Amino acid sequence: MKPKTLIILITIASGLAIWAFSKITDSAFLVSDSGKAQESAVEDASQLLDVAIPSFLPSQIKEYEGFNLSFNSDNHTPNYVSWELLPHETDGAQSRHDKFWQDPEINGCPASSDYTRSGYDRGHMCPAADQKWSEKAMTDCFVMANICPQDRRLNAGAWATLEKRERQWAEEKDGLIIVAGPIYEESDCLRIGETNVRVPSAFFKAFLSHRGTDTEAVAFVYPNMPAHGQMRDYMMTIDELEKITGFDFFHALPDDIEDQTESTFNAKAWN
User: Fold this and answer.
1) Does some domain include residue 159?
2) Measured between alpha carbons, how far is residue 163 from residues 39, 128, 184 in Å?
3) Count of the separate structural domains present in the chain
């Protein structure tokens, strides 16, 4: 699958930026009942954490406590970060410690200082609030391999709202598989810090509910800027996200379930 060009159209009207994606059609808002699995879509949920990415992308895979990631040594950011969020993991005794650290085992992993005075936040792909269930998980999620340069207004705004919502969904749906990462265009040339961390133009998050008898999924893409409007404005199918990124998500699902689950989503179930 060839990556699809992500079209960014920014117009200024009353100080608001409007984001448009190509071919986000009405099919994105269909309610599907045929995404139901026979019993369980896959026997081992960890298989769903794997994402197939184009072979030309640099990729170093590493498993941390609570999440996996594929790191891109050219961009100095992850290609993607994936994790399973279970209901009992949505809260815990571990407090956020904000101790960012550089992993010497990751080729091209930046230092926290690369972001200092850059104008960008150290944006978590796997959020700290999803890792309060374990001291090790909390420590690991502050590895700089899990971080991307993120507009502060997005990080503290719509992205933070989506992170809160994912914990609600994990409780409601008896767990989720989540994949998050940056989206780069060829024109994304801005880099920060001594490591030359590449600033992405957008971010994605893909969600899969696979427990019980129902299998359903949805994706979100937010531009790396303040996100105006409603969450539904940034929703899309997994198929549409795959066209944008060139990635193959949740490919461990049986083909018939994958085809149905990734081609539609129930907007009401995710809003």
Assistant:
1) yes
2) 28, 10, 21
3) 1
